[in-house]
Design brief:
Helix content is 67%, strand content 14%. It is of the alpha+beta class.
Length: 396
């Protein structure tokens, strides 16, 4: 049963195995957020031994032990910075899922439409080849003898071979699109699939400046680069904060039982001394990474502008070609090819006109379908680059 292109997109978004990877990335980031929001575990220090006391005529020994329960206390603001960094990790993971979902939907649409057009081209090539096969008998029977019928038959046979080669190429391209579609949909590579042809209306004309402004706010690559830069800024602040020590504070209890019981209850405090490592190298490294992030954002902006401009120019060029053709052009070529076949059999059309008409019918079918596919691909590329459904194609 033929499947619509929208149906293919729905199946791909539900079954694609790579989507599970991006969803798992979100789960990992959320788990990291929970860990970042927790205080360090308290530390329990236990010492046990025996104490022996000798002096004068007195001797005594007994158990001596000490217990310390301490809680590491980080410098104010450090926990909040870690939470903020973990939040950016979640946002980046969600952007990754959105970007891949948009790419997957666009790719499936292009492949589905390509598969449908290749099926049509293959059917047209088979139709023309069948005409050549059947008309050879007419050529042989037209005149009782001579070399002319034989030459005409050979010309038709040669044209038939060329058409069959083109049909084979269309079948190969159709198979390649089918294999990739099955892969994206999480199906076996050799699973059969028939696509219902769906025409897409070209998106409404939009000024290039407007598209660039939209991309500055919604482009996935720019959003990822901006989030990465914001994260780097937080990491700089965290590196500076981590230069200050973490205090470990807690109650302590020690008792000695050697002749007499001696109990000491107190408060322990420990802090590292930044003599050998003052944390400045980590701060310098994080600042350098932030500078890299700023340069990467600028480079990404220039690259996105270039890609959008190229996609927009391609779309406008292909749109002009498509607008220059009559809506019924393909049907008119098919009817002309049928008329040429009928009149050639009646002897009213010369062989050269007949063969040329059949070949042009196939070439026009290929050209029209290729242009429509290019318009769809350019529109979907532009939609992904802009990151907004403002240029999204719609079925009619």
């Amino acid at each position: 049963m033929p499947v619509t292109i929208d149906g293919l997109v729905t199946q791909a978004l539900a079954r694609n195995p790579e989507l599970r990877y991006y969803k798992a990335e979100i789960a990992v980031a959320k788990a990291g957020r929970k860990s970042a929001g927790k205080l360090p575990n308290p530390e329990l220090d236990l010492e046990v031994g025996r104490k022996k006391v000798t002096g004068g005529d007195a001797k005594a020994e007994g158990i001596a032990y000490s217990v310390t329960l301490a809680q590491p206390i980080e410098w104010p603001g450090r926990l909040g910075l870690r939470k903020a960094i973990a939040d950016r990790d979640i946002a980046l993971a969600e952007l990754g899922l959105e970007r891949f979902s948009a790419y997957l939907a666009a790719r499936v649409k292009v492949l589905g439409y390509a598969l449908a057009t290749q099926q049509e081209i293959a059917a047209t090539a088979a139709e023309v080849a069948d005409r050549f096969t059947s008309v050879k008998e007419v050529v042989v029977q037209r005149e009782p003898g001579g070399v002319a019928p034989m030459l005409e038959a050979k010309i038709i046979e040669a044209a038939e071979i060329v058409i069959q080669r083109e049909a084979g190429e269309a079948a190969v391209e159709m198979q390649e699109a089918l294999l990739e579609l099955n892969q994206l949909m999480g199906r076996r590579a050799d699973s059969p699939l028939q696509v219902q042809r769906t025409e897409f209306k070209p998106p409404s004309r939009t000024e290039l400046v407007s598209l660039l402004n939209e991309a500055a706010r919604h482009n996935y690559d720019l959003l990822v680069s901006a989030a990465e830069l914001e994260k780097q800024g937080l990491q700089v602040a965290l590196a500076k904060n981590e230069r200050y020590p973490t205090f470990t504070v807690g109650p302590s209890l020690s008792q000695e039982r050697a002749g007499e019981n001696e109990t000491v209850i107190g408060l322990s405090l420990s802090v590292p001394l930044p003599l050998w490592d003052n944390g400045q190298p980590a701060v310098d490294a994080s600042i350098a990474r932030r500078m890299q992030g700023e340069a990467s954002l600028q480079a990404t902006m220039r690259e996105v502008e270039r890609q959008i401009t190229g996609a927009w120019l391609l779309l406008e060029t292909q749109r002009k070609r498509l607008d220059g053709w009559k809506p019924e052009a393909q049907q008119s070529f098919a009817e002309a090819a049928r008329q040429a076949d009928r009149h050639y059999r009646l002897g009213a059309v010369p062989l050269s006109t007949y063969i040329e008409m059949q070949e042009k019918y196939l070439e026009a079918t290929e050209a029209i379908n290729a242009t429509r596919l290019e318009v769809l691909r350019a529109a979907l590329d532009l939609e992904q680059l802009v990151g907004t459904p403002a240029v999204k194609t719609s079925t009619k």
